[in-house]
Amino acid sequence: MNTKQHAVVDSPYGPLTLVAEDGVLCGLYMTNQRHRPPEETFGARAAARAFDAAEEQLEAYFAGELKEFTLELRLNGTPFQRRVWDRLRTIPYGEIRTYGELAGALGSPGASRAVGLANGKNPIGIIVPCHRVVGADGSLTGYGGGLDRKKRLLDFESGTALF
Fold it and tell me: In terms of DSSP bridges, do strands 16-21 and 4-9 run parallel, antiparallel, or are they unpaired?
């Protein structure tokens, strides 16, 4: 039986809810996030220090000191969604890709819409950097955490905005 627990941590983007399943991070959700699971699915409030590694890496990221997360993750989704989310993790810090580029890299150049849908259901925002994906024309299209947060994350990573 899977045991879930959660914690809420502060960030420059508002409270972040971290969720772990059997001790492995399986969710990072923002307030008012589209496709956010119901609170009752997050499990019990975690004991102190249960999310130390995730909190330390997030703090380092927001301080501009960490460019790549090294946390163990459990990405629960369909095989296609997991392929998209794994590919997102290869987009370097401060860079962007289009949905079409991601689809092509997955060997499915006509699947940019399916890539966008999978991207939108990413269960571990920020750490799995779905905010680094933009429309074909470079526009900020869709983001489960809201376009304002997406713009702020991209500005932060490009060095045009610092906290």
Answer: antiparallel
